[in-house]
Design a protein that fits this description.
single chain; 486 residues; alpha/beta; 11-stranded parallel sheet; 9-stranded parallel sheet; elongated
Length: 486
C-alpha cells in the first residue's frame, strides 16, 4: 500500500486520492448517475474506490448529479468516512472546477507541502492497483504528471501536445501525425484540437489520471479559464499554466492500456464487464476453482472463492460473497453478499442475499435466503423454502414449501413441509422460538410471538398460538368428522 511514499530526496509524501464522480453521463441513459452504473454487480465508483483505497491514505469523492444517491452508496459500501469525504460540485462546470471545489475542502485536512493528489475518474472500473502503484513510483519526483495512452484513433480524448508537434505545425501544416515526440507542452481537449489543427491528428491521448503536488493544484486551479469550445474549466489546462512557470511536467505513456479508458455508453459498459468477467474467471480457474460453462458465470471482484469450489453456469455471485472450499454451486443461482461454508451443495435456482451458511449444508433447489438468514452446520433446506432474519441451528431440516421468518430455530429440529411462522400482525413483527429437537408436522402455522420448547411434537395441520413445555405434544385442529354425502 502506497498510503505514504518516500521521495527520492528523502521527503515523505502522503498520497490523497480524489475521484471525480459528479457527471450526469448523457450518453448513459439511466435513472441512476453514471458513477453508479454497475459492472459485475458493483457500481463503477465502487471498483475505482476500492482500488484507490489500496494506494492512498485518504480517498475523497466529488459528487454532483444525484449527489444524494452517490453519497448514500459510499456510506453503505465503504462506511461513514467515505460519505463524509464527499465534496459537492453544485454546478458541473468542468473537471478543473470539480478539483478546485474539492481542494478548497481537502486543504484543511492535509499537509499541503507534503501531499500529492492522485486524481481518478469514476468511470474506469477496470483500473488495477498494480498499474497505479507503477505510475506513482514513476511519477513521485514530478510536481505534475499524468498517464497518457496511444490509441488507433484520438476519439473524444484530450490530445497530448508535445513540443516537436507544435514546432512542426508552426512551420508547415501536416495532414497526419503519428510521431509525437519531445517534452509535454499541453493537453488540448478534442473539440479544441479539431478547431485548432484541422486535418491533423495525434494518437497520444490523456487518460485523465494525474499525480500532482497539492500546492501546485492550489496555485494554478484558480487561474483556469473557460475560454474554450466547451465553455468549461478544464483540469488539463494546468499543464500549460505550469509549463509557463517552468514547473516540470511529465506524461507516462502506458500505450494501449484499455483498462484506463472511460465507460461512456451502454456498449462500453458491456465491453468492460466482459473484459473483467474473463479476467476474474481465468484467475479463479488458475487458482483451483472448477467452472463449467465459465462464459456464463459472473463473479464480483469483491467476492472470495476458495480453491476446490465447483460452479456450474449460468450463475451470478455478487458483492462480498465468500464461498469456502469444496462447495458446489449448481446452475441458475444468484448469490449476493453471502458467506457459504465448506462442503456445501447449493442446488439449482437458489437465491441468497446478505445471508450466512455453515459447513456441509444442502440447500434447494429453489431455496431462498433473505437478509439476516443464518444457517449453522449440516442444515438442510428443501425446495421452495424461504428463510428471513432467522437462525437455523446445527443439523436442522426445513423441508419443502416452508417459510421461516424472524425466528430462532434450535439444533436437530425437523420442520415439516408447508410450515410457516406468522411473524407479522399487520403492524409489528414478532419472533418465533423453536427449541432443540422439536418435530413440527406438515402444514403448521406458528402465530408469533410463540415459543416451542425442546422435544415438542407438533401435530400436522396445527395452528399454534400458545407456548409449549418440554416434551409436549401440541395439536391445534378440529376433530375430524366424516359425513355421508347426499
Amino acid at each position: 500500500m502506497f498510503g505514504w511514499l518516500v521521495h527520492k530526496k528523502g521527503k515523505i509524501m502522503q498520497i490523497c486520492t480524489l475521484i471525480l464522480a459528479a457527471g450526469k453521463g448523457t450518453r448513459m441513459p439511466s435513472a441512476n448517475p453514471k458513477a453508479l452504473q454497475t459492472v459485475l454487480g458493483e457500481a463503477m465508483l465502487s471498483h475505482v474506490y476500492q482500488t484507490a483505497a489500496y494506494v492512498s491514505s485518504s480517498v475523497w469523492t466529488v459528487i454532483g448529479h444525484k449527489a444524494e444517491l452517490v453519497e448514500k452508496h459510499l456510506n453503505k459500501e465503504f462506511g461513514e468516512a467515505a460519505g463524509s469525504h464527499c465534496v459537492l460540485q453544485t454546478k458541473q462546470l468542468g473537471t478543473g472546477h470539480a478539483v478546485l471545489c474539492a481542494m478548497e475542502k481537502i486543504k484543511d485536512s492535509i499537509d499541503v507541502e507534503n501531499t500529492k493528489i492522485l486524481i481518478l475518474n469514476a468511470d474506469v472500473p477496470l483500473i488495477k492497483k498494480e498499474l497505479l502503484e507503477e505510475f506513482i513510483e514513476k511519477a513521485k519526483d514530478y510536481p505534475l504528471s499524468f498517464i497518457s495512452l496511444l490509441l488507433d484513433s484520438g476519439q473524444n480524448y484530450g490530445r497530448v501536445m508535445r513540443e516537436n508537434f507544435r514546432k512542426n505545425v508552426q512551420h508547415a501544416p501536416i495532414k497526419t501525425h503519428t510521431e509525437n515526440t519531445g517534452n509535454v507542452a499541453q493537453i488540448i481537449e478534442a473539440k479544441d484540437f479539431r478547431l485548432a489543427y484541422p486535418g491533423s491528428e495525434i494518437f497520444e491521448v490523456n487518460s485523465g489520471i494525474y499525480l500532482v503536488d497539492a500546492k501546485v493544484l492550489l496555485e494554478y486551479l484558480p487561474k483556469l479559464s473557460n475560454s474554450n469550445a466547451g465553455k468549461e474549466y478544464y483540469l488539463t489546462d494546468i499543464i500549460s499554466l505550469a509549463k509557463k512557470e517552468n514547473i516540470p511536467v511529465e506524461a507516462f505513456c502506458f500505450e494501449n492500456a484499455k483498462a484506463l479508458l472511460g465507460v461512456n455508453n451502454p456498449l462500453e459498459l458491456n465491453q468492460a464487464e466482459e473484459i473483467l468477467q474473463q479476467e476474474i474467471n481465468l484467475s479463479l480457474m488458475q487458482n483451483g476453482v472448477v467452472m463449467h460453462n465459465p462464459q456464463s458465470i459472473r463473479i464480483s471482484p469483491f467476492a472470495v472463492i476458495q480453491r476446490g469450489v465447483e460452479i456450474f453456469g449460468p450463475c451470478e455471485i455478487y458483492g462480498k460473497s465468500e464461498i469456502e472450499s469444496f462447495t458446489t454451486i449448481n446452475s441458475h443461482c444468484v448469490i449476493k453478499n453471502t458467506k457459504i461454508g465448506e462442503n456445501c451443495v447449493v442446488q439449482s435456482f437458489c437465491h441468497f442475499e446478505n445471508a450466512a451458511v455453515g459447513n456441509n449444508a444442502k440447500l434447494g433447489p429453489y431455496a431462498r435466503l433473505r437478509p439476516e438468514a443464518k444457517l449453522a452446520d449440516d442444515v438442510h433446506l428443501g425446495n421452495f423454502c424461504e428463510i428471513k432474519k432467522s437462525v437455523i441451528g446445527t443439523g436442522s431440516k426445513v423441508n419443502h414449501l416452508s417459510y421461516i421468518g424472524d425466528s430462532q430455530v434450535g439444533s436437530g429440529v425437523n420442520v415439516g413441509a408447508g410450515c410457516i411462522t406468522c411473524n407479522y400482525d399487520g403492524k409489528n413483527k414478532h419472533r418465533t422460538i423453536i427449541g432443540d429437537n422439536a418435530f413440527l408436522g406438515s402444514n403448521c402455522a406458528f402465530v408469533a410471538p410463540v415459543k416451542i420448547a425442546k422435544n415438542t411434537l407438533v401435530g400436522a395441520g396445527s395452528v399454534i398460538t400458545k407456548d409449549t413445555a418440554e416434551n409436549d405434544l401440541a395439536i391445534a385442529r378440529a376433530r375430524q368428522v366424516n359425513i355421508k354425502k347426499r
